[in-house]
Write a structure and sequence with these properties.
Blueprint (H helix, E strand, L loop, with lengths): L1 H14 L16 H23 L2 H5 L7 H15 L2 E4 L2 E13 L2 E11 L2 E4 L2 E4 L6 E10 L2 E9 L20
Antiparallel strand pairs: 1-4, 2-3, 3-6, 4-5, 6-7
């Protein structure tokens, strides 16, 4: 009977996660709070993708806290693309694994293994598919500022991603 209950519990927790092409289910969502944190991160990623597609430095800056080194680096990459007359469209982040490290009403910290995919550099007469980012594992700290969730910092986690080693690339990954 215990085995049956364990199997039913496993099926119930793994089959309830929504699946879509951009965001396949994370392998294990242990708690509702983890699912909520992932939803928050997906919405943040969606807004970031839109800022990159629009070439909107102000919208991108609004996604980070003022002191965020990660935000400064992201804005510098956007400016480098803009200086060449390019925007980045189709930027999608695929979460491969995630675990919630902490949750308070104004701060969420997740350890995430993800990769950027589907991005294209677009400009006048230019359409270049950017390479798919390799999976990387980072710790993402978000905090609520004036009611909006912003990334405070993204740091190395110390864990190697299961699928591949982390490398630098020209893909606008949120974790660089």
């Amino acid at each position: 009977m215990r085995l049956l209950w364990a199997v039913l519990s496993l099926v119930a927790t793994t089959s309830c996660a929504p699946a879509d092409a951009d965001h396949p289910p994370v392998p294990v969502v242990e708690t509702r709070r983890t699912a909520d944190a992932l939803s928050l991160l997906r919405e943040w990623d969606r807004r970031r993708s839109q800022a990159w597609a629009d070439g909107d430095a102000a919208a991108l800056a609004d996604l980070y806290t003022r002191a965020s080194r990660t935000g400064r680096h992201d804005r510098a990459m956007l400016a480098a693309y803009a200086a060449r007359g390019l925007r980045v469209a189709g930027l999608r982040t695929q979460v491969l694994d995630a675990s919630l490290r902490s949750w308070t009403p104004d701060r969420v910290t997740l350890e995430v293994t993800d990769r950027v995919m589907g991005a294209q550099a677009v400009g006048r007469g230019v359409l270049i598919s950017l390479p798919r980012d390799r999976p990387s594992t980072r710790v993402i700290s978000l905090c609520r500022v004036s009611g909006a969730w912003r990334v405070e910092e993204v740091t190395e986690s110390g864990h190697r991603p299961r699928a591949a080693a982390t490398t630098r690339s020209t893909v606008p990954s949120r974790n660089r």
